[in-house]
Design goal:
3 domains; alpha/beta; FAD/NAD(P)-binding domain; 4-stranded antiparallel beta sheet; 14 helices; Flavocytochrome C3, Chain A, domain 1; about 35% helix; binds flavin-adenine dinucleotide; about 20% strand
Length: about 475
Amino acid sequence: MQTNYDVIILGSGIAGLYGALNLDRKLRVLLLAKRELTLCNSSLAQGGIAAVYDRLHDSVQKHINDTLVAGGFRNDRKAVEILTTEGPDDVRRLIELGVDFDRTETGEPHLTLEGGHTRPRILHHKDSTGKEITDTLIQQVRALPNVTILEHSTACDLQKTGNTFHLDVLDEPGSHQAFHSHFLVIASGGIGRVYEYTTNSSIATGDGITLAYRLGARIKNLHYIQFHPTAFANRHTRESFLISESVRGEGAYLLNCHSQRFMQEYDERLELAPRDVVSRCIMEEAKRTHSDQFYLDITHEDPDAVKARFPLIYENLLKEGCDMTRDKIPVYPCQHYLMGGIDVDIDSTTTIDGMYACGECSHTGVHGANRLASNSLLEAVVFSRRCAAKINSLASDAPDSFEEYTFHNDRPGEPIPHGIRTETRSILQKAYFVTPDLAEARSGYERVCQLRDQLESSGYLVNRDFVEARSLVTVACLILREVLED
Ligand SMILES: Cc1cc2nc3c(=O)[nH]c(=O)nc-3n(C[C@H](O)[C@H](O)[C@H](O)COP(=O)(O)OP(=O)(O)OC[C@H]3O[C@@H](n4cnc5c(N)ncnc54)[C@H](O)[C@@H]3O)c2cc1C
């Protein structure tokens, strides 16, 4: 198979797919997915994508303000301006590509409200917007003759010599193959699996961030982690099912263990305060009531409307024995999103020449210290399109030749010892969940650094288990270091 490409895109979520669609058709592109194309955080997105679509009742300035307020004004203002001014055109492009957003009776996209937004501006496809967008983009990218898609292919190692990136990729039967490119786009998603409880897909182990870090790229604000206030409180599985913010947007109340609303005691925006605020309020209320039982209650709304608006959430809860039209939904905060990541400029350029990063693995600065709901799908499309435009503008100057490089990751070796991932998750859960615990962070940091050194220095078998464990311990070190330095 062909091993030299103009561009390799590491990741096939919305950032990777939309980036591929925007690259010049003359460029030979390799698009990698660790598992099947649809297994990613993008497919899980429920609420929708934020954009100023209704200029009569909304404005870019309001979207900017809401983004800055939610981000605690730690956002990069230039990036926020780009996100909000260019975003509506990308959303229109998604519609042209075939994304079927829900519509009002007059045929306009239905705009919903979510926490931190002062106007309804979230376009959505029922409560499965991410799947609708991902499926549409996959169909479009599969039709591109210049894009080769490799599923079940894990990027294990990354090197750069001269003008060429070298990527060691492991396929599902277990063979290693090196691919080479002049441009590399990292679109590998988030880090949720470093926590015991997360809404993230199993691919979210921070592999791309780790590969970039090991190559020397600047990583920024990895401790800017969003804890969603309302995941379904089912502690039997690691992947917590999200009860989208739009359930609160459509009128649900947040209740404590006494079935009382409590947000009025903490914030005038009530249930629709930004996520970090609501999560912190829940932790405060838990201390006050000595209970970690919390509920969302939407039983006062029309049951048929609730079922029609949230079919996915309704069905998922029903499987757990909870009918959201009649029962309170047990909820609790859990890890949800990474605002920090591989540091990039407004064209998604990293600190390594020829390397780009977009989507959740990147740090554009748009989200500041806390992401405004539904701004991440928007960030993924806006900045992956800008990344593609930048590469298109530089590609004609790229040399014809590729440097050579040989990896030695196919050597036999011992599998990694059991328990490294479990220990890392438990450390993070104790050291930094909603708010940091500095004593736990200090001891946890030392331990995860030891684990990282162990994995980096020993000749373990390089399989997916090894790669993901190495990523988790590396990401854990970076998060806790930032927590301790902040
Ligand atoms: C439950 C849930 C609900 C959400 N709801 C919303 C919402 O309503 N609105 C919103 O704006 N945002 C939402 N988000 C956030 C949003 O979905 C993500 O931030 C965004 O989709 C990330 O897209 P991405 O392309 O960066 O990464 P992903 O979609 O996660 O894709 C990552 C890709 O990288 C690949 N990959 C990773 N490691 C490797 C490797 N080593 N080798 C090869 N490939 C690799 C994966 O296979 C995958 O293809 C939600 C997230 C979750 C989890």
